Amino acid sequence: MNYIFNKKINGLIHGGDYNPEQWLDEPDILKKDIEYMKEAGINEATLGVFSWAMYEPKEGEFHFEWLKQIMDNLYENGIYTILATPTGARPVWMDTKYPEVMRVDNMGNRNRHGFRHNHCLSSEVFREKARIIDRKLVETVGNHPGLLMWHISNEFGGECYCDLCKKKFQQYLYKRYDGDIDKLNHEWWSTFWSARYSSFDEIEPPYRNGQFAVLGLNLDWKRFTTQNFCDYISVEIDTIRRYSDRELPVTTNFMKRFWDIDYRELSKKIDVISWDSYPAFHNDKETFADTMLENAFDHALLRGLKPDKPFMLMESTPSQVNWMEFNKLKRPGVNKLCAAQAVACGSDTVQYFQWRKSRGALEQFHGAVIDHLGTNDTRVFKEVAETGRFLSKIGEVEGSVTNNKVAVIFEWENWWAIEAAFAFAGQTKKYDETCISYWKTLMALGIDADVISVNDVSDKYKLVIAPMLYQLTEKAASLLTEYVEQGGILLGTYMMGYVNENCLCYQGGFPGSGLNKLFGVISEEIDPLYPSDRNGISLTLDSDANVNMTTSLTVKDYAEILRVNDAEVLGIYTEDFYKDSPAFTVKKAGKGKAYYQAARCDEASLTELLEFILKSEEITHEKLAAGIEKHTRCSDDYAYTFYLNNSDKECELSNIEGENLVTGEQFTGCVKLMPRESIVLKSKLL
Ligand code: GLA
Ligand code: ZN
Fold first, then answer.
1. What predicted TM-score, i.e. pTM, was given to this entire model?
2. Which is catalytic among the residues 100, 155, 187, 398?
3. What is the largest CA-CA distance in the chain?
4. How many Å apart are CA 333 and CA 408, to the nearest integer?
5. Between 412-420 and 431-444, two packed helices, what is the crossing angle to 10 degrees?
6. How far is CA 235 from the centre of its chain?
7. For helices 431-444 and 603-616, what crossing angle results, to 10°?
């Protein structure tokens, strides 16, 4: 068991962002807040996310009285505090006096004061100001009994192209390439278009009006930016650790599969993963169930950053957001369903942005538990209160974790490298969506998969799927090879192993770095198809395959033409000039097997293909009814299985066993779930 808060809160957290500093002149409102929080089963408030200007209205003048007062009131009423450091937004005085703290954009223009999340993280002035305010906070409330955790800043993201950042980038490169500019020139292949450098101080970030044609530079810039966030967050964390007598956990709020930062790196700096989930529910592009499953993929991805402990759903809206093109309301029942999903996926918290709507400014119409009406009899309030009751009944799942046997690989650097490649088809690369499609297909087959880095591949997993692993390091190639040789089942796909870590193409056959030997195939060409083009794969299974499949599969978007060396051909193309050539293969290697899928399949065909592999490899699975999602968390003694009905139909689940954690009822056999209903079943682990 791994409790995030050392059992200080017995059960799950139900809380969210609270901005009482906007209401200090309205004590009645603050009083009502506490009353309503208790009624809604709220046991946590996240304070101070954007309070810098209130704490330090003038440089060096500090006011924390209000914070102490609020924390005391909350604590007296059984509500704990997660305290943010206020570095998400800067006070005006800072920008006026120290313009270097304001970011420079990718055309070289410096911002003016305004907005938030836009500091130059290389600025020593900014770092020093952050150290001062953090130290003051620790000294003032660091020992408060209601304090649960530190939340560093808010939603890190973006980039800065100022001279300070440029200098740091050059230093980063100097270190990465051992001070050898020729090494850099080689890795960046900079002889192309006369891009060679003769010293590190000639190098600029990839300005949009500058050098952005060097793929290695672009990728290193993204790596550097991640590194600079890691370096910056350490400044804040070290300050808290240095001045605090207590070892409270530290987090920062992530945002799903976020393009700007390699979260696997940033997560090494924090104790607990937390993230902000805002799916575009009820849109006109996909079903509600699809939106839910995409969100579940993100839960799995974020959970995978620290797989051995629960994570936190730090923010979600109880109703609508204010920043989408269409800020649709969450339909009745969806708030609770999302809470059940988060916990099912391994979260020990369900938190909202925000407790109360602001009266003014940019987020005045963003959803909140309490809206401008100000009462506890609104639909949203009642749904939140119901969610609170639900969470209090399933509190014993706290500290339990998932134990999945199938994994899908997702890599940030690979995502960056694929998107940066001037190749294939701009519209259809869709790396992240492709990973999600494998994950969703597995869920439809009753398999809850982990989402992992190639570096986390281990014999814990029976099957590992590596969709479009275009950028392949030598280390990754050897880990995958070892995994298969030791008995693992690997599925690789089109666009695998084309380039190395610096975007240089592998010579001698894709997938490179030895993987063409592992799979027994070489991908000689890739055919990017137009969106309306279709090909097919006809499966050619021999008689001792223990699976019968006659269906032919539909191919879209990408089809590779293979040379098969020593793999067995399981499927061939049905159309075009490469008709009858291999499209799906398998090779036994050591104790395991390596499958290669040379073309992208449509949804139905991907289900067929994965089902074929699961059956062939005797991996336990059960097709779930449409719209049903299933997850299991395990404690030392019990398994907690969650079923969610994401469909708009009533659904019957059969072969169910266990105790309904909410009602205490014992189930064997069938159970009906209404649309948007969920059930949590507890059973003893054998
Ligand atoms: C993010 C931020 C919050 C708020 C919400 C609105 O998650 O962290 O401060 O702006 O978005 O959805
Ligand atoms: Zn900068």
1. 0.98
2. 155
3. 81
4. 30
5. 130
6. 24
7. 60
| Cα–Cα distance for residue pair 423/207, rounded to 1 Å | 21
> Do 121 and 101 contact (CB within 8 A), yes or no?
no
Report the nearest atom of ligand 1 relative to the CA of 255.
7
C-beta of residue 260 within 8 angstroms of C-beta of residue 216: no
Q: Which two tokens stand for residue 555?
A: 């191919």
Residue 127 tokens, joined = 């770092």
Instruction: Please give the radius of gyration of the chain, using alpha carbons only, rounded to the nearest integer.
Output: 26
The sign of the torsion formed by the CA atoms of 602, 605, 611, 617 equals negative
CA pseudo-torsion sign 253, 322, 222, 417: positive
- How many angstroms separate the CA atoms of 96 and 90, rounded? 11
| Residues 6+ positions from 170 with CB-CB distance below 8 Å | 200, 201, 203
Reported as a single tens digit per residue, the pLDDT across 139-177 is 999 999 999 999 999 999 999 999 999 999 999 999 999
The strand pairing partners of 416, in sequence order, are none
Q: How far apart are CA 628 and CA 678, in angstroms?
A: 9
For residues 173 and 167, the answer to whether their CB atoms sit within 8 Å is no
> Using a 6 Å cutoff on CB, does residue 353 contact ligand 1?
yes
Q: Mind listing the pLDDT tens digit for each residue in 259-278? A: 999 999 999 999 999 999 99
Mutate to test the pocket of ligand 1, among 353, 358, 362, 363 (most ligand atoms within 8 A of CB): 353
Q: Which of 100, 236, 315, 568 is catalytic?
A: 315
Q: Are 291 and 280 in contact (CB under 8 A)?
A: yes
Residue nearest to atom 5 of ligand 1 (CA): 353
Single-letter amino acid, residue 419 = E
